[in-house]
């Protein structure tokens, strides 16, 4: 109990000392308030003068001009050190860029521009076409193939263009007095490899189409798969050999 009383008494003395110091500080600030205000005014005044002097006498940039290549991070910076000064015939001082620096700048920029161009065209080449772009290319290719068969004397029905996704997988019907062709068109890039499954799917679509259109059963039906791609997987080549006479596979560039 005696220890607790002694500890509490010491804490009370500390609080009294802190309160005393606060009152003493307030008294000093009040007594010397005019002096403190003057000192603050002097400090702010000196800071303002220093800022003005810095703005007036700060060193100017040595850059003469900066040419920026739009839409890039490339900058050509030519400074005074890159120039020589001479007098022309009229005794007027002129500044001329040093040839070596100009050549270095030019080469540096050309290399960067060429690098950016390669990156840009590479990105464009790898960019996947949108649905609308693919649809337009597909429609144009169907017309291209249809015009070819019309030039061969066939009467062509543009089933894909007329019925859209409800065409049953048959884009064109080409007919003459001897035969009726069920044609599927694939407007693919030449670098894309044609897969076996697309031809197998087309064969199934032909069977379904003939079942839905019984009047065609009496005709001489031929199945024709036309593509703009010159590449094909090994499985497709093997499938075409196995189904010789049942389907005609045509590569028609576009």
Structure description:
- With 254 residues, the protein is α/β, with parallel strands linked by helices.
- It folds into 3 domains: 56 residues; 64 residues, no CATH class; 121 residues, 3-Layer(aba) Sandwich (Trna Endonuclease, Chain: A, domain 1).
- The chain contains 7 helices and 11 strands.
- A 5-stranded mixed sheet has the order 5-6-7-9-11, sandwiched between helices. A two-stranded antiparallel sheet has the order 1-2. The chain has a two-stranded antiparallel ribbon with strand order 3-4.
- It is elongated, with a radius of gyration of 44 Å.
- About 8% of the residues have low confidence.
- It holds the Pfam family Mrr_cat.
- This is Restriction endonuclease type IV Mrr domain-containing protein.
- Total separate domains: 3
Low-confidence stretches: 62-82
CATH architecture of the largest domain: 3-Layer(aba) Sandwich
Counting copies of identical and different chains, the oligomeric state is single chain
